[in-house]
């Protein structure tokens, strides 16, 4: 169960990271 939770956390973080990168791309 905890492993599944960790996986979802990682996915959320990755999503945020990608979103930030995308926004920076558009800004530049």
Notes on the protein architecture:
The protein has 28 residues and is an all-alpha fold. It has one domain. The protein is built from one helix and no strands. It starts with a helix and ends with a helix. The relative contact order is 0.12.
Structural class: mainly alpha
As a percent range, the share of strand residues is under 5%
| CA-CA gap between termini | 41 Å
Mean pLDDT comes to: 85
Number of domains: 1
SSE order, as H and E? H
GO molecular function: endonuclease activity
Protein name: Restriction endonuclease
Keywords: Endonuclease, Hydrolase, Nuclease
Salient structural properties:
single chain, 28 residues, mainly alpha, 1 helix, 0% strand, rod-shaped, endonuclease, Restriction endonuclease, endonuclease activity
